[in-house]
Please model this.
Amino acid sequence: MPNLKDLKTRIESVKSTRKITSAMKMVAAAKLRRAQEAAESARAYSERMDTVLRSLAGSFAGMEGGPELLAGTGEEKNHLLVVFTSDRGLCGGFNGTIVRETRRLVREMKGQGKTIKLLCVGRKGSDLLKSEFRNDIIDSVIGIGGKKGIAYHEATAVSDRITQMFEAGEFDVCSIVFNKFQSAMTQIVTTSQLIPFCANEAQEGEDADNGELKAAYEFEPEEGEILDVLLPKNLVVQIFQAMLESSASEHGARMTAMDNATRNAGDMIDGLTLTYNRSRQAAITSELNEIISGAEAV
Amino acid sequence: MADMVEFELVSPERLVMSQSVGMVVVPCSEGDIGVLPGHTPLIGTVRAGVVDIHEDGKVSESIFVSGGFVEVTPNRCTLLAEEAIAVDDLEQDVAQARLEAAQAALDKAQSDIDKVNAEAEIKTAEAMLAAMGITAAH
Model:
């Protein structure tokens, strides 16, 4: 028979847990709305950037010696993976899925004899990957996104870093791994290649209305010069987009996780209250029994 | 409509503007370009400056952009700008502060990237001030 007092403390503690999780859920929901808006309105920019760049890169295809950001270094040996996770936990499988995908990628590429470097954006990523790939993690960027959400210059800082490393010849290929926001319930782990710019990835079905884009463009200034400006910019934009998507996903995942936690706590309280009442009644019954049998004995 | 251009101004944060306009003048790096319907397809880089939207032969709206690039097709004009602020919303103090901060950053800059960034920022802030000067003269 569980002790009545213990049960009571237990119920109280689960109740306060429920309060916390439901408050976290509310906070996540509010943040999610803002982050979702930011991510969705930013898609316009990155998508247009992408189309322009594709049509530009298309006209460069087949030409020798384009800029290195477009053409690559001609090697594929050193790979930089930029992994976007959150700074904080308690968001369900959000970080777990990213880390699992990263592990898979790293193992696969190491199996092919490539060298891997990891740049973690978000504290959780480096925390979770540290145990296995301590020597591959070059750095982690934490504290992205303040009260006002993610600012563009935060993405610039990360991309400047990547550009610097690229120019120093520290890697040949750069990819990002992040959660693409679909809805509060679903986030899709997405891997996309940033350097060299991959023009062949054009989604199918898009070609139909692309006829207009294939029209011969005039360039001002020269194509090469535009590309020199555009490619680094595209890098920033893609990273910025990944940050926004990742933060919207994080809040969505946290909201769902906290919703579940709140519900679980509710179920647990119900169960515990039932046990509490049962044992209280049992105690009363046995007390009555004792009194009656005592009276009979007299 | 045949005599209108679909003008879209997009910043990384959001779609700033999307509407049909008569003509739009974009400050490109090699001179201002006026885009009318039926313009040749063109891709160009944009310097920091003011985008003027013309309606019925008059400037209906002026927006400051801090550089980016523009894509023009016969019936569309898409301007991707890093920052876009309506000229009326510009503040002199803010621009001045940015200019000073950028100059300080240039003095301290060590790597080439820092230097280039600081120089670009100075140009942006100067263009911002110039934009306000122009509006004041109107």
Summary: The two ends of chain B are 31 Å apart (CA to CA).
